[in-house]
Amino acid sequence: MTDDLGPMEAVADEEGLRGQRVVVGIDFSTGARAALLFALHDAARRGVAVAAVTAYRPPDYWLDFYAVGTYRPDQARGAALERAREFVAAVVAEGPQPPPPVHVHAAMGAAAEVLIWESHGADLLVVGSRGHGGLTSMLLGSVSMHCALHASCPVTVVHSPEAHHERLRLRRARRPGAASHGEGATVG
After folding, report:
1. DSSP SS3 for 126
2. Pick from 19, 105, 149, 167: most CB atoms within 10 A?
3. Residue 167: inside a domain, yes or no?
4. In this structure, which long-range contacts are made by residues 90-99, counting pairs with CB atoms below 8 Å and at least 24 apart in sequence?
């Protein structure tokens, strides 16, 4: 379905884009924003479409016997797809103009596995260096590492400026003598 946001198409789980394309993982982080911008520019250069993919999981209550009847897979997929479409629409406006065709896709599963599956036959898989994980000092997150190791196509890991600044701040805070010079010292 093509909407009024330009050349953007939302597709359901079983309708993933195939053929020449640049696949990008979307988790709504600053890393995902940087990865999507990179993917848009790369796809425009190559003359191919972008497949923006988000992974979602059913709510935790799906394991509760009494709550099983309240889970609506179509609503969960629809909510993930709508959130991804809004995120992509905001970033597409900052990318190359005119933008390449963008297909937004939501699939249920673990992010790394979904991205590896969706990138089969792609020209490139683009992921952010870190998403929402708690290990902020790491250069690569678990999803980007898994994709780099297991994807069947080339993988580009994009570091966002925000992630770079956070790693730099943490590195400075760990430096010997930083507390004595007022850097990274905790008061209170």
Report:
1. strand
2. 105
3. no
4. 91/33, 91/36, 91/37, 91/40, 92/5, 92/6, 92/8, 92/40, 94/37, 95/36, 95/37, 95/40, 95/41, 95/44, 96/40, 96/41, 96/44, 98/7, 99/6, 99/7, 99/40, 99/44
- In this prediction, residue 169 has a pLDDT band, given cuts at 50, 70 and 90, of confident
When mean pLDDT is compared across 3-7, 24-28, 113-117, 151-155, the lowest value belongs to: 3-7
Look up the pTM and report it: 0.76
Asked whether residue 114 is assigned to any structural domain, the reply reads yes
pLDDT tens sequence across 82-141: 999 999 999 999 999 999 999 999 999 999 999 999 999 999 999 998 654 554 445 567
User: CATH number, domain at 107?
Assistant: 3.40.50.620
Q: Residue 66 is part of which domain span?
A: 8-161
d(CA 35, CA 23): 10
Strands 49-56 and 102-108: parallel
Instruction: Report the C-alpha gap between 10 and 37 in whole angstroms.
Output: 18
